[in-house]
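User: Hand in any protein.

Assistant:
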Amino acid sequence: MLEKIFHLKEKKTTVKTELIAGLTTFLAMAYILGVNPAVLSSTGMDSQAVFMSTAISAAIASIIMGVVSNYPVSLAAGMGVNALFAYTVCGQMGYSWQAALAAVFLSGIVFVLISVTKIRKVVINAIPQQLKLAIGAGIGFFIAFVGLKNAAIIVADESTGVALGNLKSPTVLLAVFGILITIALLARKVSSAVFIGMVITAIVGIICGEVFHIEGMPMLPDKAFNFDFTISTTGAFMQGFGELFQDPLQCVVVLFSFIFVDFFDTAGTLVAVANRIGIVNEKGEVENIERALFGDAIGSVAGSILGTSTVTSYVESTAGVGVGGKTGLTACTTGVLFLASIFISPIILTSVTNAVTAPALVVVGILMAQQLKEIDWDDFVAATAGFVTVIIMVLTYSIADGIAIGFIAYAVAMIASGKAKQINKSVWALLVIFILYFMI
């Protein structure tokens, strides 16, 4: 049955490899189960209900993605988009969380429509091949930076922006140990080196008392099967339409912001994964991309109905790809584990720490950065677009901003070099959208 659905032999993978990849992706993504409730509860939402909706929506969306597209890409409530939801839409603009959920629902419907009409596919395939490579490499640097930052190896600094963290801290030392041991395993070409590195790091952390501080037996969240959960979040978006439409212009700004960030975060993730598993053809087109985009769109709608911010494809999926994940079985495994997390949430939230996941993110970042060698650095246009995409993505802490500014740099360099006629019509349309995004 698994062979029929996921074509494992054709993809040159095995059930064992896919299951390990799914577990690796889940461990790299598990932080969202703690972070998302913390962020969204600032809007007045119930944190236990948000935990449940985060876990269930991630499970549904990941399984749909796996079965529909056969991509090793998992989904969950997006980081960055949840901050947009809580701090901008609800905080600065003053919308209720119900109205914000209504906006997420509408943006999801828009995604479904443009996925069915293949507009998203056209846009992604219109991205020049050199930019596709830069996006993949940029995401590698981005997730490595995320891992280093979360583990406090890199910290904020008022004078220099960023600086080296406290290497005397036990948790920082644990993360550094994990990174070094994982690098050593990869250098020795050990199978599943990234996953094994995470396991070794977790074990050392437990022995040293840096992770896994649980008192008593893990229990179900208070509202796991309580009707309060359904009443407090599921379907709450229906209550927000009236408020959302009170100011049509501001409503458009909100929708555009959700759509833009999710669209290009997803595009970047899918392009990066596609490059990594070798499903980009000679024309630079991503195979079967329309199904992946449809699965992502359905996930966004499901998340808003369940009561969480925009569900999107996760760049941490590259951690699973890094240990050999090539099919939708990886995503389905991650989805099942998100469901299981409901029952073992205390264990997950205390044992899968930033120090444990940092090695996977940093090492997978190294693997993805290898795509830089495919960029034609002798071509100044390609070099400019590639460099700008990578550095902006990292320094702005935004995949979407990196893609947008990289596109603008690409167009300017093409025009200046007398190659304006070679720019795809879709690229011109995207440039207008990018400029509007930054102006708004």
